[in-house]
Amino acid sequence: MAELQEVQITEEKPLLPGQMPEAAKTHSVETPYGSVTFTVYGTPKPKRPAILTYHDVGLNYKTCFQSLFQFGDMQEIIQNFVRVHVDAPGMEEGAPVFPSGYQYPSLDQLADMIPCILQYLNFSTIIGVGVGAGAYVLSRYALTHPDTVEGLVLINIDPNAKGWMDWAAHKLTGLTSSAPEMILGHLFSQEELSGNSELVQKYRNIVVHAPNLENIELYWNSYNNRRDLNLERRGDITLRCPVLLVVGDQAPHEDAVVECNSKLDPTQTSFLKMADSGGQPQLTQPGKLTEAFKYFLQGMGYMASSCMTRLSRSRTTSLTSAASIDGNRSRSRTLSQSSESGTLPSGPPGHTMEVSC
Length: 357
Hints:
alpha/beta; Rossmann fold; eleven-stranded mixed β-sheet; 12 helices; 21% strand; globular
């Protein structure tokens, strides 16, 4: 292994010089709804769940998560957990285009493929990390297999089915916009698309010139035909594991994530709204998302000795924790930390973090 050099880690240059890439093993398994491909990094750790990721529409596991999991500070996490990156059917690199008339799985059916993956790998529990459509898939899986999910990190989740007004707007947009343009509007805010940054240009090129664009459109249609998760804060249908909700300030899905937060158990849910992160915080702010992920894992009882640095150096971090009283009323405690503060307090989930950069 090449000698490691001391370098400054930045958001734009996340890789450590001399760092050897992880060995990856790609597998495919047959399920009742077709074949699914996934890539495994690392080896299983005793008494620890696997981290399982699921990407958004228009992306695959590399274009959705590589910036996050190759970030320097993330190495402490990936050394402690085996990772499984799932590609939705037809989204993996080099995937052939499905034949005309192919019936693409619904998001519910995509969730039903996950048990086949875990059975193949002989993994019993996971911590799910999903973005957009992938966040929905992992949530649906957690609702039907709660005993196998220890925690969820859900970025840009919309738990609601499209209403009639949404459908009308979608149809009208489809008359004047191409499918790639609509998908880009799902991934990025209008401000980001208008600004046409280098990142937006890169992902516009990925989506518009994707050799499997027909497959991407099928995944997009399944997302737009999703069912309502019907989450209820005090009902029978709810996520029973710790949940970290993440969304960028002014992102396309901000309202949907806020609504999702209102439907989940406040003692089990953390809500992170990230400033200056746009529609894809795992791409634009991998350092701060990594720090939040470490804090989330600590609350679950893992990585207790991990050092917290980036979020505690933010100019402002506000935490609002909610605890249930008698099952009917709740109270809130707000804690503000300046850049001179020490590390973030560890403890159980159930708070909101708004991070300004």
